[in-house]
Amino acid sequence: MSVKIFGELDAESLCCASRTCKLWHDIIDESDQLWRRQCLLVRAVCQREVDSDRQNGLSWKVTLVRNYTRSCLKKDWLRGRYSHVRSAEELRGRKMVPLDAETWGEILQAELDR
Questions:
Q1: Sign of CA dihedral 42, 47, 53, 58
Q2: Is the dihedral of CA 75, 105, 94, 32 positive or negative?
């Protein structure tokens, strides 16, 4: 029943809940089902990265941790959040991560289409 309830949380809330107590931590940490669900949401944005990590034998949880910030950043770029940045000061407080050449190609194409 706990896994079903935790399954309603987003990735950030799931991580916060796992820090609440040892019982919740153990339930969340050991549930591949919870991490798989969250990872598939990230895969919608970072398919190549998630598929590569899974093919390399990484767990759903590790794959999610490796790609969550990347997917948030990529989503923001693709939606045009950074289209009109005039200085680095506007990016203060934003977490940036390395992106591969194919991702930059997608971002540039989205910018051209705007």
A1: positive
A2: positive
* pTM confidence score: 0.78
Q: What is the pLDDT of residues 8-57, one digit of tens each?
A: 999 999 999 999 999 999 999 999 999 999 999 999 999 999 999 999 99
Cα distance between residue 106 and residue 12, in whole Å: 26
Tokens of 98: 């390395």
SS3 call for 6: helix
Q: Are 57 and 36 in contact (CB under 8 A)?
A: no
Q: Where are the alpha helices (DSSP H) in the chain?
A: 2-6, 11-18, 22-30, 32-43, 47-55, 60-78, 101-113
